């Protein structure tokens, strides 16, 4: 059996390695049009910032490695020009000599990856304008920086790569401006979590411009849609990627609704003996089952392994993606998985949302706050998605949530997890457990939550309500939600007669715990509809920094 693979980065090499483990006799050949293979693309921003010392650290494997370890032949600088499924043949161009050859296959794997999207901006072809998708891009950026010593940079787009490059360029002493056409940074997050990231960027000296587009790039400036100009000796376009599907499309391979190659759970395309994997394929969402396109290195490796297994007699199947992502921006860690609140509502879920602010471990051992946003289905109680902004321990918690969502856990299940506890690592009840408790109280125990945005709507609605600030008077006097009445928790029982039991009541404290205690008092005293402000005044003040908060 002759196996031919197109593409030798994460998915293609994973497919080859798995195929060889299953079948020692097969001929396995990979064509790669680039000269670099099997590289760590996620490490590229750190090479630009001098945290990674050499290109070789990101490209540890060459064709010789795969030949000696797996008996897999990799021909670099060879571009596949066309696929003929009827005759099971390929046209391949040797990019060094210019010669075109014909090859054949018994099984074919398409792992052509994705390419950076170039926005329709005048000047994107200027020599100081770059994308960062592969090692060649990285080297070009680094060489330009070494030769020209740029002092200012504009990064257009605020996805993971853009923010990671932002941090690394800032570490080299450059002045950075982020330009985002959406009204918030980090488009994958909900706005009430993205504000933490934006605030952190600004505190670290980054100029952040949202709700604005780049119209033109000149040799030293970026001209924005409002006519303003920003200095930029270097420009990075971080505006997303699109799947490389031209070869597949020309061969009659079916594309999905996302525009990427459609495959089944075994990575098979609609054409017999042709598989596809990696950043060129459409996936499906674990929660909804709907088609999605989420190109990630971890998913590429996984789908490559599945393709390699199935074309050599195995039975591995793909179980979907949660769109999980995590990145570091300066000393802050940002992570997300599953559905955002925005996505869940658009899909028709009736959601309950909580904002849980807890330290990752006791403060006496240096614990720092995590802000955890949990999104759950009010009808079924199933956890749908989580977003976390914090410092230490974000990765640990997001992985627990990922596992819970994957196995269809309900919010009430989170409290019962037997999570590891010792003071250097966690609080006695871990923030994961607290998140489950808050959502369980809201969905199943009648302890309803109201978000900052919903409270603002209530305040503006003209509806009768009472808003109780249950904090100490000194905290209230320093800052409070407009229209709030200060009744400290310890005095609330004695002040019940001042409040109308038949009107909507909202309680809050600094982060939510005392607000919940005040909510319990009002409910037990016969109040009909009582809400606790999700995340308390601390989260409300952060998400309403530009509002008329007292």
UniProtKB/TrEMBL annotation:
Keywords: FAD, Flavoprotein, Oxidoreductase, Redox-active center
UniProt KW Oxidoreductase keyword: yes
Superkingdom, natural source: Bacteria
SUPFAM superfamilies reported for this sequence: FAD/NAD(P)-binding domain (SSF51905), FAD/NAD-linked reductases, dimerisation (C-terminal) domain (SSF55424), Rhodanese/Cell cycle control phosphatase (SSF52821)
SMART domains per the UniProt record, alphabetical: RHOD
Family label: Belongs to the class-III pyridine nucleotide-disulfide oxidoreductase family.
Protein name: FAD-dependent oxidoreductase
Species name: Mobilitalea sibirica
């Amino acid at each position: 059996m002759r196996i031919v693979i197109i593409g030798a980065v994460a998915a293609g090499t994973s497919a080859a390695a798995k195929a060889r483990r299953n079948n020692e006799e097969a001929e396995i050949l990979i064509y790669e049009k680039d000269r670099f293979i099997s590289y760590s693309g996620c490490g590229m921003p750190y090479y630009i910032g001098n945290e990674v010392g050499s290109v070789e650290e990101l490209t540890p494997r060459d064709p010789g490695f795969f030949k000696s370890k797996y008996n897999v032949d990799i021909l670099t600088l060879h571009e596949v020009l066309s696929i003929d499924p009827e005759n099971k043949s390929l046209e391949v161009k040797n990019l060094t000599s210019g010669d075109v050859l014909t090859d054949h296959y018994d099984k074919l794997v398409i792992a052509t990856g994705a390419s950076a999207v170039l926005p329709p901006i005048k000047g994107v072809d200027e020599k100081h304008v770059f994308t960062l998708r592969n090692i060649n891009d990285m080297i070009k950026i680094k060489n330009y920086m070494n030769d020209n010593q740029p002092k200012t940079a504009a990064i257009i787009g605020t996805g993971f790569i853009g923010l990671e490059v932002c941090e690394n360029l800032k570490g080299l002493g450059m002045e950075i401006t982020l330009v985002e056409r959406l009204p918030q940074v980090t488009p994958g997050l909900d706005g009430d979590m993205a504000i933490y990231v934006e605030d952190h960027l600004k505190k670290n000296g980054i100029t952040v411009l949202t709700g604005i587009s780049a119209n033109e790039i000149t040799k030293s400036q970026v001209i924005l849609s409002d006519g303003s100009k920003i200095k930029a000796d270097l420009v990075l376009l971080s505006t997303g990627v699109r799947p490389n599907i031209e070869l597949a499309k020309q061969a009659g391979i079916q594309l999905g609704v996302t525009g990427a190659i459609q495959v089944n759970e075994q990575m098979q395309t609609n054409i017999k003996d042709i598989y596809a994997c990696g950043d060129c394929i459409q996936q499906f969402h674990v929660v909804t089952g709907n088609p999605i396109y989420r190109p990630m290195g971890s998913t590429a490796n996984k789908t490559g392994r599945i393709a390699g297994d199935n074309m050599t007699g195995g039975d591995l199947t793909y179980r979907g993606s949660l769109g999980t992502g995590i990145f570091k921006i300066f000393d802050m860690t940002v992570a997300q998985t599953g559905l955002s609140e925005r996505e869940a509502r658009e899909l028709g879920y009736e959601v309950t949302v909580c904002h849980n602010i807890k330290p990752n471990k006791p403060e006496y051992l240096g614990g720092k706050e995590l802000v955890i946003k949990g999104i759950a289905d009010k009808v079924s109680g199933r956890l749908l998605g989580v977003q976390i902004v914090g410092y230490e321990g974000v990765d640990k918690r997001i992985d627990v949530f990922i596992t819970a969502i994957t196995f269809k856990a309900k919010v009430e299940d989170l409290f019962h997890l037997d999570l590891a506890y010792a003071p250097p690592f966690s609080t006695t009840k871990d923030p994961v457990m607290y998140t489950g408790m808050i959502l369980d109280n809201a969905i199943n125990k009648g302890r309803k939550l109201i978000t900052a945005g919903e409270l603002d709507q209530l305040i503006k609605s003209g509806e009768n309500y009472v808003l109780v600030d249950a904090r100490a008077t000194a905290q209230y006097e320093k800052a409070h939600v407009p229209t709030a009445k200060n009744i400290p928790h310890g005095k609330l029982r004695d002040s019940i007669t001042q409040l109308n039991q038949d009107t909507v009541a909202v309680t809050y404290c600094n982060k939510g715990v005392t607000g919940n205690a005040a909510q319990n008092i009002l409910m037990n005293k016969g109040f009909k509809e009582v809400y606790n402000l999700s995340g308390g005044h601390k989260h409300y003040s952060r998400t309403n920094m530009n509002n008329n908060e007292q």
